[in-house]
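Obj: model holo form, ligand = magnesium ion.
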Amino acid sequence: MRGVAILGSTGSIGRTALDVLRRQRDHFRVVALTAGRNRDALAAQAAEWRPGFVGLAQPGLNGGWPTGPDVLVEAATRPDADIVVNAVVGAAGLEATLAALHAGKRVALANKETLVMAGDLVRQAACAGGGEIVPVDSEHSAVLQCVTGRDSGMDRLILTCSGGPFREWPAARVLQATVEEALRHPTWSMGQKITVDSATLANKALELIEAHHLFRLPYDALEVVIHPQSIVHAFVEFCDGSVIAQLGFPSMELPILYALTHPGRLPDAGVRRFDPVAAGPLTFEPPRSDVFRALGAGIAAGRAGGTAPAVFNAANEVAVAAFLDRAIPFGRISDVIDAVLAAHAPAPATSLEVVQEADRWARVRAREHVRSSW
Ligand code: NAD
Ligand code: MG
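Output (holo structure tokens):
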């Protein structure tokens, strides 16, 4: 019986994780649940799972539980938690990931922003505390599944990308896309922030940076291909030219389960079995980097390294929130990112304070750019 703490249990990944755990009660028990501000949903989950710890990150929303941002670290470091599922969205998940790794936990990481902001610090925390990161992101789970049990020799990764709702739209139309249009993802049902990231392709830039840290590959060995059906999740090319891919219908249940069981597997009757005929023709095409500029901007930030990825992430978070608030049009998201990155001189990301300062700086600059576009 392994204890599982879920950070962000009321979100899309958090709820899916609980769906998976409901079928695996013989192997795992839920020991902690935390949410951002959705007190009612958290109360319902707490009643079902009766974990030892329940916390709400938003201060003042007292449901009889501890509140405030510290609840994430508290949940992530509990002695009865063997695995921490970090399903928080955005920079808010960073400290809990570091704390869990320092405390020797397995972190099943959906919160990719953590690795983007501070990949080196995360790796150091894992080394220092004996913890390990296992990705939940479907592409990275695919890579891990392709290489596990093999004598690495991994030369190149190709991450697939659905292309989002605007894959085939004329460039001028994409600039004016509405919030409703951006939230209509063709293949995945996810939280709002990552759904917008999937429409700008910023998500794929975040994922390349994530892959760089997880699999220790240089950016020249990381590629993106558009695959609208979202059936192949990643390709791994080995040094002899052989390519292994992982396939499945788009659902986060399998990557979440695998992050809990890696390197082993457990049967799960709830996962839809694969059917190549039903999957239909599989197609691949290059990304339209000229239209979806956030992809190139993010990769450039990754290559620059140091504090640049944290700045990219923070500018993107602010721009996406402004777009969702209808304060800027869709096309301005990548303008805000570009402007903030252009003003930033990357420094080595030597400590959590340095990263957090870069994050704060970028948010201030991004908000200025958002205001100036009103
Ligand atoms: P979501 O918005 O549906 O859920 C986010 C969760 O985090 C909620 O429980 C919310 O209450 C909590 N939260 C938000 N802000 C918080 C804060 N400041 N402090 C503490 N808790 C906070 O998001 P999601 O789609 O579940 O995505 C979560 C993470 O997983 C993101 O990093 C995303 O990129 C990644 N991810 C999601 C999917 C997916 O299918 N949804 C796939 C791959 C990766
Ligand atoms: Mg992904």
